[in-house]
Design brief:
By secondary structure, the chain is an alpha/beta fold. The chain is globular. It is 35% helix and 29% strand. Strands 1-4-5-6-7-10-11-12 form an eight-stranded parallel beta barrel, surrounded by seven helices.
């Protein structure tokens, strides 16, 4: 059985890790190189690094930051931010990313998923889906770092990304991001039932219990930022408590 993964997330803006609520009111949280190494030492299974201003500034994630982070890491690194072409993905992989995440560009040009998968393999192709609740049991995709609402159904989009060759989904509840109110379990169930892809649950973690709930509702991995950046838990503490609760994790 595959073990459940714990993934700290580094949202990077102008070379610094930031954290906000619903992608707004960003505050400084530290240096990406130091934090990624710090979480690796605590036992993180992977690191996700997202350049949150790259799409709005019409550029890809900062290569210098990725190269510096990669020099310190031995665990997998997923990078996203402004990826609009196969060449963008190639540059990020060349800078040290193991997997490349794309959101806005894939929504604009779904064939990008096919091309990335064909060039680099499904294992390198991560589709980030930022979803905002539209109706009691329906969610729409949001793009451009949460600034643009689409009419695209998030669950249907998740299923399509699998057909196009994606290897993993990074699923963020826009409504829960930074709120510490727990993952959107209804959204998580809807997406995991619509696709066979591994799904990383993101948005709203405040406790180990929230992570247990996510795993119980189909998540293959959980992503968190605030609880790690603000020192509420170390990755090691999270894993110890998850193991006590019967969740299989890498120790």
């Amino acid at each position: 059985m595959l073990k459940s993964r714990i993934i700290p997330c580094l949202d990077v803006n102008a070379g610094r890790v930031v954290k906000g609520v619903k992608f707004q009111n960003l505050r400084d949280a530290g240096d990406p190189v130091e934090l990624s190494d710090y979480y690796q030492q605590q036992g993180a299974d992977e690191i996700v690094l997202l350049d949150v201003s790259a799409t709005r500034e019409d550029r890809i994630a900062m290569l210098e930051t990725i190269e510096s982070v990669r020099k310190r890491l031995t665990i997998p690194l997923t990078v996203g931010g402004g990826v609009g072409s196969v060449e963008d993905a190639r540059r990020l992989l060349g800078a040290g990313a193991d997997k490349v995440s794309t959101n806005t560009a894939a929504v604009r040009d779904p064939e990008l998923i096919n091309r990335m998968s064909a060039n680099f393999g499904a294992q390198c192709t991560v589709i980030a889906i930022d979803a905002r609740r539209h109706e009691p049991a329906a969610w729409h995709v949001v793009t451009r770092s949460g600034t643009k609402s689409e009419t695209l159904n998030a669950v249907e989009w998740a299923a399509e990304t699998q057909l196009r060759g994606a290897g993993e989904i990074l699923l963020t509840s826009f409504d829960r991001d930074g709120t510490r109110s727990g993952y959107d379990l209804e959204l998580l169930v809807a997406v995991t039932q619509a696709t066979r892809l591994p799904v990383i649950a993101s948005g709203g973690a405040n406790s180990v219990e929230h992570m247990v709930e996510a795993f119980q509702h189909g998540a293959h991995a959980v992503l968190a930022a605030s609880i790690f950046h603000e020192g509420n838990y170390t990755v090691a503490q999270v894993k110890q408590e998850l193991a006590i609760r019967g969740i299989e994790v890498r120790q």
